[in-house]
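Researcher: Here's the sequence for the chain we discussed earlier.
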Amino acid sequence: MDQDPVMPPDFALPGFAALVELTMATQQMDRDEAIVFLEQRWEQTGLGGVRPDRGGDDLERDEDPQQRRPDGNAPPPHEEDPPRGDQGPGGQPADPAQPAGSQTITFDPDARIATTLTARPADYAIKRIEVRKHVPLWYFSREGLREAARAVRQSDENDTLAITKAEEGQVTVRSAGSLAASKNAKLDHQLTYSEFMYAKNLFLTAIDNAKWGDDAIDSFNWFFHNLDNHPMREEGDRGERALLLYASRARTDWHDKLVLRKAYNIATINEELLAKIARELDSREVRANLEQVRIPPHEQIA
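Model: Thanks. This is the structure I predict for it:
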């Protein structure tokens, strides 16, 4: 008997309103175009199988042609491939990063939870670290960590969905909050010196977890060490502000050069650039002081 035609969900229904609106914003489409876009993506990713006469609770997939015998009959149970367990393609162990439920969970039965638990930064920061992109150290500061913790608690109640590209021809629906930069984020030179030095510890842990490699991790570790032990710190607030602005610009430039495959050893402090930045800050302070003491026009003597 012929099967009922496979139909996509009706993305015009109110239940898909948030997803449609997000697609309109990200793809710069009107509502009708966004609905068509979602239907096309639904078909391309092989998410078909909902029978319209049975609702969304009964999903069926088209049978894999390779699983049928030449005579058109399905193979008996004993002829089907044995389950692979937690093996991946080619009989190799499956990737531990695969979604939960796709493989058997394994662990060391003698291992236990650590005495000190590391705070978890926002997903936005972690994802940017994983793809080797610049992220302000604010996300690893106490303020950034508190905001990340609040976002986790509120996600179940207020989260919306976003469409992201997973593989060629495929899309993934995930939390929009985990993709967005915080409106409260600060640049490195907008942090206090103590906030900056606190955040760098979690940053170093994050790039280690993201497997940036020993050379890059050591370079950034020495970068922070050289800043913290630089003679300019003896100048007090002026010196620390200069070091923070230098660090902010150096980290941004390093990532820009990384894209061009021209990354360098950031640990080496460019003393000429640092001195130039210190003079720049001095000039700003002088101008600010002049603005404060300038006599208003209506009080000037004619």
